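User: Hey, my collaborator sent me this sequence without any context and asked if I could get a structure. I don't really work with proteins. Can you help?
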Amino acid sequence: MNVDLFAGVSVTDFASALPWYERLLGAPPAFFPHDTEAVWEVAEHRYLYIVQKPEHAGHATHTLFVEDLETIVGGIAARGLTPDQQETYGDGVRKITYRDADGNEIAFGGQAGGSPPV
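Assistant: No problem. I've predicted the 3D structure and written it out in structure-token form, which is a compact way to encode the shape of the chain:
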């Protein structure tokens, strides 16, 4: 089965959220479906998007499990963002959580010394 995944994040103010997500994800959006929606391709056939929907803002919780967590987190820090929370689980998995101005949680996780599960 071929599937494209689109994970949505509702924001209160698209214009102010856009630069924050560009810093978090390290790139401009791949495309803009309309004036208040931006889409990033975070991996092949896997997309994260923000859309202005103030009535739903602040409730997203997404985790991207990556192969090289330290490089991702280092790049985000170099772009001026700091995590709100850092966790290490008993099996060595780490989770680094960032929150946008609305309180949406975007986290990056990684297996210590290994690759993400498939």
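In plain terms: Strands lie at 5-11, 31-34, 37-43, 46-52, 61-65, 85-88, 93-99, 105-111. You can pass these tokens on to your collaborator as they are.
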